[in-house]
């Protein structure tokens, strides 16, 4: 059985996690979040099995060998992130569409794999400067981690055109409203 997928991708700091969480509250009868596996440390307030499945690198590599991932990537040097096939199937079995908060390359991989069943949305910040401000404001990363995210963000902004839709995230309320219209239209 194959259901639908709604993919939110963007450089770190663009606002995709915020928008995805908003949609999950509003449409919890229609969509569920694909919890990725990650080898990064949990941030304050993050919960294992809710935000991510936080696992060791050893376990991650073991799961790659067992072909448990639909896609995975070493998103930041030494830190792996991946989408588990079982996670997608679990959500489809509940009769819901799967919603993703995933990096740009991972998002494009999923789109290629699932074609018409997937809607790929690129969340676009007003500018790179604003994105840097948001990342700093979030206060979750060390200077070194920030630098890595900002460097990657510069490159990722160039991929926007490859997505089905570009969603501007200038005013957050407006972006959430637009996201919910896109979602309802796609799930019709
Ligand atoms: N390819 C891939 N990327 C993922 C996955 N899960 C999360 N990511 C992305 O990895 C990047 C880093 O995520 P995170 O450490 O939570 O930091 P943030 O983007 O700064 O909030 C983000 O772009 C996520 O969207 C996944 O399963 N696969
Ligand atoms: N439209 C917006 N205006 C101002 N701040 C925003 C907006 N969208 C998100 N933010 C803030 O920017 C930071 C990064 O957002 P987040 O959702 O974590 O991004 P991402 O998941 O893409 O890395 C967070 O602190 C969030 O509250």
TrEMBL record:
<keyword id="KW-0808">Transferase</keyword>
<keyword id="KW-0418">Kinase</keyword>
<dbReference type="InterPro" id="IPR017665">
    <property type="entry name" value="Guanylate_kinase"/>
</dbReference>
<feature type="domain" description="Guanylate kinase-like">
    <location>
        <begin position="3"/>
        <end position="184"/>
    </location>
</feature>
<comment type="similarity">
    <text>Belongs to the guanylate kinase family.</text>
</comment>
<keyword id="KW-0067">ATP-binding</keyword>
<keyword id="KW-0547">Nucleotide-binding</keyword>
<comment type="function">
    <text>Essential for recycling GMP and indirectly, cGMP.</text>
</comment>
<dbReference type="InterPro" id="IPR008145">
    <property type="entry name" value="GK/Ca_channel_bsu"/>
</dbReference>
<dbReference type="Pfam" id="PF00625">
    <property type="entry name" value="Guanylate_kin"/>
</dbReference>
<protein>
    <recommendedName>
        <fullName>Guanylate kinase</fullName>
        <ecNumber>2.7.4.8</ecNumber>
    </recommendedName>
</protein>
<dbReference type="GO" id="GO:0004385">
    <property type="term" value="F:GMP kinase activity"/>
</dbReference>
<dbReference type="InterPro" id="IPR027417">
    <property type="entry name" value="P-loop_NTPase"/>
</dbReference>
<keyword id="KW-0963">Cytoplasm</keyword>
<dbReference type="InterPro" id="IPR008144">
    <property type="entry name" value="Guanylate_kin-like_dom"/>
</dbReference>
<dbReference type="InterPro" id="IPR020590">
    <property type="entry name" value="Guanylate_kinase_CS"/>
</dbReference>
<dbReference type="GO" id="GO:0005829">
    <property type="term" value="C:cytosol"/>
</dbReference>
<dbReference type="GO" id="GO:0005524">
    <property type="term" value="F:ATP binding"/>
</dbReference>
<feature type="binding site">
    <location>
        <begin position="10"/>
        <end position="17"/>
    </location>
    <ligand>
        <name>ATP</name>
    </ligand>
</feature>
């Amino acid at each position: 059985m194959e259901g639908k997928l709604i993919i939110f991708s963007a450089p770190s700091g663009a606002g995709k996690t915020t928008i995805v969480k908003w949609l999950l509250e509003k449409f919890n009868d229609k969509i569920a979040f694909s919890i990725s596996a990650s080898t990064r440390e949990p941030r304050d307030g993050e919960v294992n099995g809710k935000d991510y499945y936080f696992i060791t690198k050893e376990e991650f590599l073991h799961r790659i060998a067992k072909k448990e991932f639909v896609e995975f990537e070493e998103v930041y040097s030494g830190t792996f992130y991946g989408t588990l096939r079982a996670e997608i199937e679990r959500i489809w079995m509940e009769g819901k569409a799967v919603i993703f908060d995933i990096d740009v390359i991972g998002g494009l991989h999923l789109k290629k794999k699932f074609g018409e069943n997937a809607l790929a949305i690129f969340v676009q910040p007003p500018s790179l400067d604003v994105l840097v401000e948001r990342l700093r404001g979030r206060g979750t990363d060390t200077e070194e981690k920030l630098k890595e995210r900002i460097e990657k963000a510069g490159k990722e902004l160039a991929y926007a055109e490859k997505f089905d839709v570009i969603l501007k995230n200038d005013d957050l309320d407006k972006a959430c409203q637009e996201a919910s219209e896109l979602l309802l239209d796609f799930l019709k």
